[in-house]
Amino acid sequence: MKTHFRVADPISIVLFTAFGAVITYLMAPLVLIVLNSFNTSTYGAFPPPGFTLDWYANALFQVPDFRLGLVNSLIVAAASTFVSVTLGVLAAYALTRYRFRQRETVRTVLMLPLFLPSIVVGAALFVLFILVSLYGTLTSLVLSHALLNLPFVITVISANLKTFSPQYEEAAMDLGANGIRTFFEITLPNIRFGIMLATVLAFVLSFDQVDVSLFLARPQTITLPIAMFKYTENYQDPTLAAVASLMILFAALVALVAIWLLTRSRLSTYL
pTM for the complete prediction? Predict the structure, then answer.
């Protein structure tokens, strides 16, 4: 019995090599950050002369701004995600299902935060919130992050709606359901995957937001990324690497939970 060996396609070899190089390029900085977070050297010498957990203890218990920033970041991320997803679903539904004058103009206006420089957006919001007496509050951060997240939410939900035929909604209305009941009982359940994805994306983007937040935060409303930024003004030890490693772990857990929820929802669809 002859054993046949499949000759690898040169194009496949090149593609897999390029893929591996890209993954290595993306993952190498994260691996180095995690390694440096255990470094016994105060100045981040590499290779590490030894390993310690002191920097994690310093980040968690010795720097109050990190704890305050974490609490503020979670509050702002959760609230802005709720606002942006709620408004984004409604806006995406209107832009996808209805035909009206200036629809593309409205879509362009809603997408503007994607194209404007963050410095411009931050400066504009800084002036606006001073005028309405909201500067330095968590409310200003929530509204700003929701504004920045809205284009991403609209894009994700619009793509999901385009794969969902409006005939199902029309059939529900033919059977006596009004528009609101159709939206909540037919449309929303069928775009739940898009809503989950948009929710995770909006939360992570808000949690990591720095540029605009720098214009709006005061000492009592700083977020975790701003606290990290300010820490670098006085210290260059691996404490920041420890905080960054915890943020990487947090992002990975959020992604895993999102994948689990999507998988569970898909399985329930077929059962």
Answer: 0.84
